[in-house]
Specification:
single chain, 8% strand, alpha+beta, 4-stranded antiparallel sheet
Length: 318
């Protein structure tokens, strides 16, 4: 039987597939914590724009007269007595709050001020936003600036290759491929864990590949820009098909489409890589334990206790 027919009908018998399985397993274990970290922080980053909208007032009630100029500055001095007014930004829209930077003992703070009601309405950047930005920086740069982003790009490349090897390993043969589309009923068995892993891997493959590819782009944009420019068109035209496609992939990466329902769905979907690692780790662990148990039973059988004892003990352990 030719190699192609063996792959189509019984891929498990191919040596290169067994080698690829080992590469996939050990690569997944090596990247496991990285994948879990990026999966969780990526899901948390989806709501980054919403946190800014929720936590920072964008408008104030337009009741009464809006103070401007010197009158506004006098009101600020009264409200922030004991502070130095470093800067004041009034904004163009009449409903916009005033952004004011105050300082005391060399420490600056950005606040928002209601120019109608003449009172402070909170920090420009509340602590929760600092936490959100910390999570985003961890996801984008591993808290390491440009060097961290480069490391992230290398990790994304390995993650992308891991997804490709998983796609090759997914095919079980002509007679069994439909079994790998569904997880079946939940049960505490290695078989269910495997079906969960391969089914989730299949259905999430397009998204996983896009996440990996766009993460590589964020870290190493030059090759992508060169490729987009090589496809022709005016580089200053933002409507070039290649540019539009690249922006669509970036929006897909961050879940920038639809409303809140779409973002919440994207948060859940973003956790799939973490699920794939957990299920993959369980499969590896159970396989390792099974081999260790088989080796121990073989050693006992070889020590004079006989094959019948080995079979009986395997039934007890299983």
């Amino acid at each position: 039987m030719s190699g192609w027919r063996r792959w189509a009908n019984a891929p498990q018998s191919l040596l290169w597939r067994r080698l690829l399985m080992r590469i996939h397993s050990w690569s997944g274990l090596g990247l496991g914590l990285y994948v879990v970290l990026l999966s969780i922080t990526g899901s948390a980053s989806v709501l980054r724009p919403q946190f800014h909208l929720w936590m920072v007032p964008r408008s104030v009630p337009m009741v009464g007269t809006r103070l401007k100029g010197e009158e506004l500055r006098d009101a600020l001095l009264r409200n922030y007595e004991g502070f130095e007014i470093s800067s004041v930004y009034e904004g163009r829209r009449p409903e916009s709050p005033v952004r004011v930077t105050i300082a005391r003992e060399g420490v600056e703070t950005e606040r928002l001020f209601d120019p109608y009601a003449l009172h402070d309405i909170g920090l420009m950047y509340p602590p929760v936003l600092d936490a959100v930005e910390w999570v985003v920086d961890l996801h984008d740069n591993l808290l390491g600036g440009e060097r961290g982003r480069a490391v992230n790009g290398i990790g994304a490349t390995l993650f992308f290759l891991l997804a490709l090897t998983g796609a090759l390993l997914w095919w079980p043969g002509k007679g069994r491929w439909t079994e790998h589309l569904l997880t079946g009923w939940p049960e505490k068995t290695r078989r269910f864990t495997q079906r969960l892993h391969v089914a989730f891997g299949f259905w999430s493959l397009p998204m996983v590949l896009v996440w990996g590819l766009t993460a590589i782009y964020f870290a190493f944009p030059d090759p992508f820009i060169w490729m987009v420019d090589s496809l022709g068109g005016d580089p200053s035209d933002p409507s070039r098909p290649a540019d539009v496609a690249l922006r669509a992939l970036v929006n897909w990466h961050f879940g920038r489409f639809g409303g809140m329902t779409s973002r919440l769905i994207w948060i859940v979907i973003g956790l799939i890589p973490a699920v794939l690692f957990v299920t993959g780790f369980i499969m590896w662990r159970m396989r390792t334990l099974r081999r260790q148990r088989a080796a121990a039973l073989q050693a006992l059988a070889g020590g004079g206790r006989g094959p019948a004892f080995a079979v009986a003990e395997s039934k007890v352990d299983g």
